[in-house]
Amino acid sequence: MSVLYGLVALFGAITLLNLLLTFGIIRRLRQRPATGSATYPGMLPSGSLVGDFTARDLLGQPLSRADLDGRTLIGFFSPGCDACTEQLPAFVAAARSVGPRRCWAVVTGDAESASPYLPSLEPVARVVLENEDDSLLSAFSVQAFPSFFVVDATGRVVAGGVAVDDLPVAAAA
């Protein structure tokens, strides 16, 4: 009988230790600062400075890091990308809330291949057509599509993700 009491006491002590460790982990996770977005490989993490770039939108207006005005929502799309097509309505809705002055859409390829995206994007964003070796893709380290960012006026990434829902878009408005 004393062996049984000993096993119950040992089991109780292990359970108590497990409970204390679990509470400690939960407390530590709550104390961690929120980054504002998930970190994904192949894109700049939050807090990173966007590289220098120059581009022109479809109206021929130049774009550079100096043209970032307040918090800017930027989306990267690739024709033929199913995930890009799925994210397009959410991006357009977010772009409407932000306004075209502070929303950029970068579509890889030429005007013909980008044509499915243009009717939705042109009214709500400054649209840039880029080849995969152009400077905007390099400046944001974009290696996967779609990619979305909120960038502040200094060119720092506030948040980034592979879905519009990953971003604090309301904070960009």
Folded structure, characterized:
It is a single chain. This protein has 173 residues and is of the alpha/beta class. Helix content is 37%, strand content 19%. The protein starts with a helix and ends with a helix. Mean pLDDT is 85; it is low at 33-37.
Q: Keywords for this structure?
A:
five-stranded mixed sheet, 173 residues, elongated, Glutaredoxin, 2 domains
Number of helices, where a helix is a run of at least 4 consecutive DSSP H or I residues = 6
Q: How many domains make up the coordinates?
A: 2
Give me the Rg, rounded: 23 Å
- In the CATH hierarchy, the architecture of the largest domain is 3-Layer(aba) Sandwich
pLDDT average, as an integer?
85
Largest sheet: 5 strands, mixed
Helix content: 25-40%
